[in-house]
Amino acid sequence: xxxxxxxxxxxxIKDVSPEQLxxxxxxxxxxxxxxxxxxxxxxxxxxxxxxxxxAEQGSEFIxxxxxxxxxxxxxxxxxxADILAAFDAISSYNALFYERLTEExxxxxxxxxxxxxxxxxxxHGFIRHVQIHLSQIQRNLDALGAI
Length: 147
Ligand code: NI
Prior knowledge:
Layout: H1 5-13, H2 18-22, H3 32-55, H4 66-72, H5 80-100, H6 103-106, E1 109-112, E2 115-118, H7 119-144
Antiparallel strand pairs: 1-2
Nickel (II) ion binds near residues 38, 42, 129 and 133.
């Protein structure tokens, strides 16, 4: 399921036109392309979090300003194929990382604002996060009357 997240996103937006990809429901809301770019940003953070926790148990979570990352990288001007390729590459590499973990490593925890979060929680959280944004993509497409 983790590895399939990239296919889910790719399949959902493969027939979306360039205009539909950059349409924003409101100035402060994300376009479909910006949502995809956010998934790459989130994958960067996820990649560091899981490695830090496995290597440095009890480490603090790295935090980031997600809206600022999307806006400051001018994600809407980027190429959707590049975004999807990056998401696919990072997800594949992380899937291989997860496959090598021992049972004990799956239980290792980091600190998110005083709350303990395990590698197992992060693994499932990543999948849920993609599902949430798939729904967001669908809402944009519905609003556009797209397929
Ligand atoms: Ni998100």
